[in-house]
Amino acid sequence: MASADSPHQQQVHTLYTDHHGWLQSWLRRKLGNAFDAADLAHDTFVRVMSNRNVTHLREPRGYLVTIAHGLVIDRFRRQALENAYLEALAMYPESEAISQETHAIIIETLVAIDRMLDELGSRTRQIFMLAQIEELRYVDIARRLGISLPTVKKHLVRAYTECLVLAAA
Length: 169
Known about the structure:
single chain; mainly alpha; 0% strand
């Protein structure tokens, strides 16, 4: 663990004091409210603290914006997933309501699945969705996409492997 006087900690402190206000203003313009902006500015600097390569930044604001932009995208993605889930949940009778804890677990699972699907790559994701959502057979996927059956199998093995890794985590 780095001491409080380490060059890394000094650089993070300088980065924070020089750019935190600016970053929070930038985020407030992007998000439309000060509370979310403060949360994401904080999360940005938490990420900065975990990165050991901040001692020689040429463009500190560009670096901060890159991290913050990713966090903004994650927040919007999470909100979209949660809204879609709440819309689907609203179709069920109130007697089948779930606890807040179960709701939180479901949202976290949906976010993890979405992140996993995003990491698959577009072709693998498309093949996986055709197999899982549309329940197409491998041969039908190959025909629809104009690719070989072994290619479909290769992509699905990759997708299923990622699912197993996610399930084990």
